[in-house]
Amino acid sequence: MKLKHLPIFGVILFAIVIRIIFFCGYCLGDDPVYFAYANMIADYHYPSFNILNPFAFRPLFLLPIGLSLYLFGRSETALILPVFIASIITVILTYLIAKKLWGYWEGVLSALFLAIFPMDIVHASTLTNDIILSAFISLSFYFFIKSKKEEKGLSFAFWSGLILGLSTQVKINGYIAILILLGWAIYEDLKNKKISKNTIYLFSGCVIAQLLIALFYTIITSNPLMPISSEIFYNHKHLLPGLLNRELSEILLFYPKFLIGFFKEGHTNFRFMAYGIHFYVFIVAIVYFLLKRDKNTLFPIFWFFIFFLLMEFLPLKFYPYRPIHRLPRFLIPLFVPLCLIVGLFFYELFSKKKKALTLIMIFVLLIIGIFSIKEAAKKSYLFKDCMRDPKLAANFILKHNFNNIATDIELKACLIFFLPKRNQKILDLDYHKEDISGKTILILGGSRRPELDPAYPVRFFPKRIPYDWRMMFRDKCLGITKQR
């Protein structure tokens, strides 16, 4: 290994270590569905494709997880391994994109800023499909840039389009990336007053991918647009009721409020900044490059703002104004262009070789790093704490002899994961009251979703508790009772 490669290898190693330190595992609200489907894939089955089930239409997210479970067994590590690998790959791709656009040290700094991005650190060890989507988008964009920079790069343009088209099978948000890259290619062609071969190859790759996907779903479901139909149906069905009656002013600027820290993630009395303080530096960098009229930064700026604007306004339903479910992690694909701009900004200021300015930038870099790690630590703690109660319940059940387990639907999903070899039947109290008999343990109040208010699981709380139950013991967050 050449000495000049040590910095980027150091960044990659740091990214791996810091993500291992803040490992979370099974914890997000959709994890039960993803685990169940990946488990089916590991057993040589695939979940059914139907309009009620948008999760099944994400095969490029489910298949790697299923393969991981098949190869390494049913564990939290195997469950999140594909996401973890995708996060590290995205750090590497950030370096490669910046290096191709500007140079080596710009790449190292850009990768470093993604390596310490607090949300990326934590979600790298969770079942977050946005991390894998970000890897697909970054790989596609890197191939497109490579096709522009190399004489024989047309094949890279085709692969860029093909990967971009396939990214929609990780998550439907991949269509936004298609609009961005095709939009940029068309913009460059209009500026040059001719259609380039790169654009044709890019478009061809994307179209071929989408045609193959449409053909597959036509054969399976007779609807070529079934993934989109399923997402729309699901969003209408599960539109959160509380959002319908809110004022327009409350709903607007959802993501900007998180970006600047006006809104914070977490639960009451335990909150943290979703995106750290990277965005503040990004805004300063944008102003700097606009004043400088640096055209070399236009592509990542275009990438960031188009994705951001579409994510902010595209999901909103007008007449009446109704937003679908949105979470801060949905902006994860934006981290790459943000870190590209910030990395280039730091490199330019370092390259001025003014001692005072260099010391200031080192100090700012340390502040960003320390703050990011602190926020990542808080978020990781919350994620793991939300799984403390299900793990406590699972350990208690393993030490005692019960015929059945009765609980709410949220905790039931967690226990299915944490008790894979259980002999007991897990009963949902809202649907299986008539089956509760013999030595049955009742567990209440043990489920919390880290990304939603703790009151959210109340909607799943059993509507009626059998009268003949007495308390065995009560933990801080977990109550366990046993039938007489």
Commentary on this structure:
It is a single chain. By secondary structure, the chain is of the alpha/beta class. The chain folds into 2 domains: 3-386, no CATH class; 388-483, no CATH class. Helices cover 60% and strands 7% of the residues. It has helices at residues 6-21, 31-42, 59-72, 76-101, 104-115, 118-123, 129-149, 154-166, 174-192, 197-221, 226-237, 248-251, 254-259, 278-292, 298-313, 335-351, 355-386, 388-399, 409-418, and strands at residues 265-267, 270-272, 316-317, 322-323, 404-407, 425-428, 440-444, 469-474, 479-483. The strands form 3 sheets. The chain has a 5-stranded mixed beta sheet with strand order 6-5-7-9-8, covered by helices on one side. Strands 1-2 form a two-stranded antiparallel ribbon. The termini are far apart. Residues 470-484 have low confidence and may be disordered.
In brief:
This protein is of the alpha/beta class.
Which structural traits does this protein have?
globular; 2 domains; 5-stranded mixed sheet; alpha/beta; single chain; 484 residues; 19 helices; disordered C terminus; 60% helix
